[in-house]
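re: ur question from earlier - yeah i can do the single chain one, its not a big deal. heres the input i used so u can compare w yours
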Amino acid sequence: MALTLAVLCPSAAAQRKKKNDDEDTQKPAVWVQNMDKVRQMDSGCFVYALPRTVLRMTVEVERHIFTAGPYAAYAEKYLGVADTRTVGSTRYHIKSTALTSYVEADAQHLYMVRPVSAMSFNFLTMTRDGLMLLPETIGKSASGSNAGSFAPDEQQLFTSMAIDAMFHTVKPKLQSKKPDADSVNQEESLVEVEEPVSLLQQAKTQEERASEVAHFIFNLRKRKYELITGEVDIAFSSNDGLKVALTEINRMESEYISLFIGKTLKQVATYTYDIAPTPTQGSYTVFTFSPEHGVQEVDGQGDTVTLELQPENKYTAVNLQPADEDNSSFKVRLPDVALVRLLNEKGELQRGRFRIYQNGKIVNVRAEHFIGK
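and the output i got, formated as tokens:
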């Protein structure tokens, strides 16, 4: 009998150990709750968030401000330049566009994790694939649209370096004077009498000044030709001296020609728009654009620029069970992929394929996947 007991006792102990191991296995390692249901956080708990994708559109717009030259009306007559613009204008055009994305915490999906027993979590495993965001990243977001703005309008000045005077020296005409009543020559009603008067300064007309500037432009070109061909007897200490002289002549010529053809000021502004797509919406109006007014709000004048998503629905054919109320599992969001296009009324401006987390599925993942042994 004693031998029998000796054999049975180890067997009973093994059964009790197996029962305890089964109970430990069935006991959940963590308790996971949506933050909407949490009333207080205990010591040792931590919070994580599910990610969501934000699409960022960057639009670079260039503005051209044209100021007509003061002698524009005489450009064809004195320079042979036809169809010169005589009225100023402001025009806009889209210089470039770009589509990028970043991930931020989804405030609608925050979860508190309460460890049931002592354990260590492998945080790297939890975050390396971007399936969840840990506390230090929840408050960090790159969101925030930039409305974009141009520099204040600058008045474009035209510089005249003319060497001729802006005025004519005019000698006044002789004045007529009526003779005195007791004059010997009573038969003459009027006589021409020259009186000493000061010389007058009379401003040149616009056309006269335009003619002088045109003459000066051709004179500059002649001097430049003589320098290049060596027809003038000028010795420069080095080739740099000749380059400096030619550069200055070109600058002066350009400044004089602008008096006829006008000046154009170019400015660039960058607009940034952030949109977090939703699973139920596939198209978003971003802004409107017109060459006359540039970028405006969605109800402004011009062509409408929209963001369009074409989801691939990766998980439609996969039998993935959505997350349920299992509080012993982590909630993880698997992203979908979508073709994203930036469009205006004339066609496509930009396109790209992006992972869209909020268009995917939220599933349960057992805590054992994240627990470090």
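The two ends are 44 Å apart (CA to CA). not sure if urs matches, ping me
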